[in-house]
């Protein structure tokens, strides 16, 4: 799928199950923007609120390209803001706060992902918005939540902070090795954002039934504890493996002639299939491999046998053979292989955004993994320029005149 430099047309009809739903998002970076982008891809009309000066801090991230306005558009911003509109309002200015509270009743959902308690201090928390819009669905994404007292209240939090606190960094870490932060990118942001979307959809359904709005309060620490569910669960059940040994199964990397692949074998019948496939039936009678714990204790022997079998193949070919035998395996793909993968291409999971700075190769961002069969999808459009829709939104929704907009702009309230 390719997205050109064309902007979103707010007059064009929206498609998808959330067509007609409107979102006003006071958001930064990724922890909420990923979720509101998903809502936009499902048909919602999303208006993003940015600071008149800095804009979304994700615009300043690296790597970056230069946008049509000659400003930096960072990677974090580019991959989290397809299909949105942008207005610039200074939320700390009294007049800016007033604009947001006047806009709120025009939207179904109001969202923010500031540090815990920050929105309330600006007079834009749930109680403030509910006072002018009782049916609002208000969603907060923060490190430690807003609705329940926390010993970490007020702590700033990025994805890696919540990931570390969930236990996932320590679970398999050898005692003499430092933690490896952000091993899979911003899992803490994306995972938390997804829980926020689930909460919003549940709140929309609740409002349809009762007419009542609601407050969706999602903490990154909570979300990552849920993602790292095995940490506390396994520990409570006595499964406390030596980090150097791993769990009682085969879950390891093996090397083919070209590239690496992962194999997971957790049942005896799967081990039998593996032994026969790689030409090592003697493993089935070997007392070293009589138990799952034995598989782990002698993993080096298994790794040598599997790797020798896979040496004439690429990692993809080896995984095809394993899958045919009923064994779960997957190739360890490079970034270039991910971009060219036929499965991802067929499912529109590779979205190419045309660059605006003369570089030929497009910016690649993931597509929408939520596929509703038989429902016309909302096509992606490029991320908005900073404040690109400020005048249009404020004049259309609030009826502000050209003169009023000019006064607000001169005062630094809007941009």
Summarize this structure as a short list of keywords or feature phrases:
415 residues; 17 helices; 14 strands; Rossmann fold; six-stranded parallel β-sheet; single chain; formyl-coa transferase, domain 3; alpha/beta
CATH fold-type name of the largest domain: Rossmann fold
Number of helices: 17
Biggest pleated sheet: 6 strands, parallel
Spatial arrangement of strands, main beta sheet? 6-3-2-7-8-9
Which term fits the overall shape?
A: elongated
Structural class: alpha/beta
Radius of gyration: 25 Å
Q: Percentage of helical residues?
A: 25-40%
Task: Give the CA-CA distance, first to last residue.
Answer: 32 Å
CATH architecture of the largest domain: 3-Layer(aba) Sandwich
Estimate the mean pLDDT confidence: 94
Strand content: 15-25%
Task: Using the coordinates above, name the CATH class of the largest domain.
Answer: Alpha Beta
Q: How many domains? A: 2
Beta strand count? 14
Q: Spans of 5+ residues with little confidence (pLDDT < 50)? A: none
CATH homologous superfamily (4th level) name of the largest domain: Crotonobetainyl-coa:carnitine coa-transferase, domain 1
Structural overview:
With 415 residues, this protein is of the alpha/beta class. The chain is built from 17 helices and 14 strands. A six-stranded parallel sheet has the order 6-3-2-7-8-9, sandwiched between helices. Strands 1-13-14 form a three-stranded mixed sheet, with no helix packed on it. Strand 10 and strand 11 (260-265) form a beta hairpin. The two termini are 32 Å apart.
């Amino acid at each position: 799928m390719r997205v050109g430099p064309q902007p979103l047309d707010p007059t064009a009809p929206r498609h998808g199950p959330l067509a007609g739903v409107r979102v006003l998002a006071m958001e930064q970076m990724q922890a909420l923007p990923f979720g509101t982008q998903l809502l936009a891809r499902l048909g919602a009309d999303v208006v993003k609120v940015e600071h008149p000066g800095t804009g979304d801090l994700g615009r300043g991230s690296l790597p970056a390209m230069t946008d049509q306005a000659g400003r930096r558009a960072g990677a974090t911003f580019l991959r989290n803001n397809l299909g949105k509109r942008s207005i610039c309002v200074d939320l700390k200015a009294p007049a800016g706060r007033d604009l947001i509270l006047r806009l709120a009743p025009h939207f179904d959902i109001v969202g923010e992902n500031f540090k815990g308690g920050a929105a309330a201090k600006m007079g834009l928390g749930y109680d403030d918005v509910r006072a002018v819009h009782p049916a609002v669905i208000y969603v907060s994404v923060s490190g430690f939540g807003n609705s329940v007292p926390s010993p970490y209240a007020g702590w700033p939090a990025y994805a890696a902070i919540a990931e570390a606190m969930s236990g996932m960094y320590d679970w398999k870490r050898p005692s003499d090795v430092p933690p490896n932060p952000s091993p899979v990118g911003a899992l803490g942001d994306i995972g938390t954002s997804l829980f926020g979307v689930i909460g919003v959809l549940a709140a929309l359904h609740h409002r349809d039934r009762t007419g009542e709005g609601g407050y969706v309060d999602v903490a990154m620490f909570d979300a990552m504890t849920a993602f790292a569910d095995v940490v506390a669960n396994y520990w409570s059940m006595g499964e406390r493996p030596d980090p150097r040994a791993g769990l009682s199964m085969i879950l390891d990397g093996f090397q083919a002639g070209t590239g690496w692949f992962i194999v997971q074998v957790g049942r005896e019948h799967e081990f039998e299939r593996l032994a026969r496939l790689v030409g090592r039936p003697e493993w089935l009678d070997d007392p070293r491999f009589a138990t799952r714990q034995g598989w782990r204790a002698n993993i080096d022997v298994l790794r040598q046998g599997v790797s020798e079998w896979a040496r004439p193949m690429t990692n993809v070919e080896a995984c095809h053979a394993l899958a045919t035998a009923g064994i779960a395996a997957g190739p360890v793909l490079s970034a270039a292989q991910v971009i060219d993968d036929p499965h991802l291409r067929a499912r529109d999971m590779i979205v190419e955004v045309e660059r605006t700075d003369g570089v030929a190769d497009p910016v690649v961002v993931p597509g929408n993994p939520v596929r509703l069969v038989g429902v016309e999808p909302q096509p992606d459009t490029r991320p908005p320029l900073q404040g690109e829709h400020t005048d249009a939104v404020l004049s259309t929704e609030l009826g502000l005149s050209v003169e009023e907009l000019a006064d607000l702009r001169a005062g630094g309230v809007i941009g």
